[in-house]
Design brief:
Helix content: 25-40%
Number of helices: 15
Strand order of the largest sheet: 1-10-9-6-7
Number of domains: 3
Shape: globular
Distance between the termini: 113 Å
Structural class: alpha+beta
CATH architecture of the largest domain: 4-Layer Sandwich
CATH class of the largest domain: Alpha Beta
């Protein structure tokens, strides 16, 4: 039996899963064991973001080398899964690497197929994800009930019950079954090859699990019983017992890895952990921001918490999570973060760039010139596209959080409300963000999604062009009603029709009518002058309302004059 997998820390429940793991495999009457098992229990920080990996592969003996296919698949899985971005969902990471490995198997069989089945289980936080292709099986054992989680991908015609219709390396287009669900303390997950389940059946498996409490002993019993019952195949079993669940999200886990106190009050001119403090730039109830310099004289911003938040249980984790997100979107559209190998207090540092936020520019100079807007809008969309490809949501896109640097770059600031599906946690009934930029579906309780960021970008770009909000300014605690947005051309008659259509689509009340991705919107912007987004011309009343009403008034005047002349005659 493997030792319990848990993170180090202080007394009390550990921040990570507590697991007991057992595994067993035997060739049986066959000369070679073409089954392969893999267990990966990473460091606590990596376990919080990527989880624990358990996998069983059964190489197909009729192919070129089934054992090689099984072992190579689990090796690629163990290495490549943990190399995918930590912000990706488990299924997204598994799908990318399995599709790539399927191509490798098809290309490296020396003219013959390299085939293997695969059943992989990832336990992360309080959820599990199962990936399955082939005829191994995954079971869930809880409170005396044995539930099969996987489907056997075999032909059901007579005489073909053991002929695979799906396997890695079999077809050019790989189709994998995925299952995601909640974990429960005290449950067990069992992965077994067909050499076990085809001989023992569900009843035999259940009987052994009832009689054997320890995972290692249970796995050994399953394999031995299968061969004693006459199995002529390799037999393998992997059992994971979930003894305790984490009560925390990623931010809490990060906070428990290092128990840092808040920095003391920093004074101008002092040196703090290698940083030369210039002065306090900003102090709010939420945070303190200092301007500091490194040994080369470059300016940085040091962000920490005010003393009044020292006892807030979620304040420290939220600050560390903000830094964690920023480190995973490094690029030209985001602030640079330095390495902090000697950090001994709760803070993080990001590069300071000369420039002004778009809110400051709007306040000082009014709405953007169309040429400036057309330069900045694609940069905002590229930044959002990069965030969303990392499975991150900003959730507070607005002019105040967009820095127009003196170097011409547009940078997205303030990741205090950023969210990663599967890793972040919101308080019930919370509505993060600035009301005028929050998407209509969020007010209705919809889960966070990329289209809400795109909606906020639409409001931001509309506001920068017009100085107004498309649905009017929304106050905190207000329950707004959304109809049709006021066309931006109402305030800016110089806007081309295609740009008006772009903004109207981005600001649609129904998410299904908006852009699906930042890249789709970016393509419309780049091609806007070469094609018409709205096939129907806008009504003249919408495009030139003043001219319409002047015309109506003039016609009315002429009619009245004609009537007067006729009556006098």
């Amino acid at each position: 039996m493997r030792p319990e997998s848990q993170a180090p820390g202080s007394a009390g429940p550990p921040p990570c899963l507590r697991l007991r793991i057992g595994e067993a495999s035997a060739s049986g009457p066959r000369a070679e064991n073409q089954d392969a098992l893999r267990v990966v229990t990473p460091t606590p920080a990596l376990a919080a973001t990527k989880g624990y990996l358990f996998a069983l592969a059964d190489g197909v003996s009729q192919c070129a080398d089934g054992g090689l296919a099984a072992r190579a698949t689990l090796q690629a899985l163990a290495l490549d899964y943990y190399a995918t971005p930590e912000t990706w969902t488990v299924a997204q990471s598994l799908e990318r690497l399995l599709v790539a490995h399927n191509r490798w198997l098809r290309a490296n069989g020396g003219g013959q197929p390299l085939l293997t089945t695969l059943t992989a289980l990832v336990l992360r936080g309080r959820r599990f994800t199962l990936a399955h292709v082939g005829d191994c099986r995954a079971y869930r054992w809880l409170a005396g009930e044995l539930q099969r989680l996987s489907e056997d991908h075999v032909w059901e015609q007579p005489g073909m019950q053991h002929v695979l219709k799906r396997a890695l390396g079999l077809d050019q287009h790989l189709v994998v079954d995925y299952l995601d669900g909640e974990l429960h303390a005290g449950e067990h997950f069992l992965l077994v090859s067909d050499g076990v389940w085809a001989t023992l059946g569900d009843a035999g498996i259940r009987h052994i699990l009832e009689d054997t409490e320890e995972p290692q002993a249970a796995c050994q019993a399953l394999v031995s019983a299968a061969h004693l019952a006459g199995s002529q195949d390799n037999a393998s079993a992997l059992l994971v017992s979930v003894d305790a669940l984490p009560e925390a999200d990623l931010g809490d886990t990060l906070a428990q890895l290092d128990h840092w106190p808040l920095p003391p009050k920093l004074r101008p001119g002092q040196t703090f952990e290698g940083w030369q403090v210039e002065r306090l730039l900003n102090e709010t109830r939420q945070s303190l921001v200092y301007r500091v310099h490194d040994a080369l004289g470059r300016a940085w911003l040091l962000k920490t918490l005010p003393p009044g938040r020292a006892d807030e249980p979620q304040a420290g984790p939220a600050l560390l999570l903000e830094e964690w997100f920023l480190r995973r979107v490094a690029g030209r559209h985001f602030p640079e973060l330095p390495p902090l190998p000697q950090r001994q207090h709760l803070y993080y540092v990001q590069r300071e760039y000369p420039g002004q936020t778009l809110a400051e520019h709007l306040h000082r100079h009014g709405p953007l010139a169309l040429a400036d807007w057309l330069e900045l809008a694609p940069r905002l969309l590229r930044a959002l596209g990069m965030l969303h490809r990392r499975n991150l949501l900003h959730r507070d896109i607005k002019p105040e959080n967009l820095l127009w640097g003196e170097d011409g770059e547009l940078r997205v600031l303030d990741f205090g409300l950023a969210y990663c599906p599967g890793l972040s946690r919101d308080e019930p009934h919370s509505l993060p963000g600035t009301p005028s930029y929050i998407a209509p579906e969020a007010f209705a309780g919809a889960a966070p999604g990329p289209q809400q960021d795109l909606y906020a970008a639409g409001v931001t770009l509309y506001h920068l062009l017009t100085g107004h909000y498309p649905y009017g300014e929304i106050e905190p605690f207000q329950h707004p009603r959304f109809g049709q947005p006021t066309p931006a051309s109402r305030y800016r008659p110089d806007l081309p029709a295609w740009l008006d259509a772009c903004l109207n689509r981005a600001l649609a009340t129904d998410p299904a009518q908006r852009y699906e991705t930042a890249e789709q919107w970016l393509l419309d912007l780049e091609q806007g002058e070469r094609r018409t987004l709205d096939e129907h011309p806008r009504p003249l009343l919408e495009h030139e309302p003043l001219k319409v009403w002047r015309g109506v008034a003039l016609v009315s005047l002429l009619v009245n004059l004609a009537l007067a002349v006729w009556l006098l005659a």
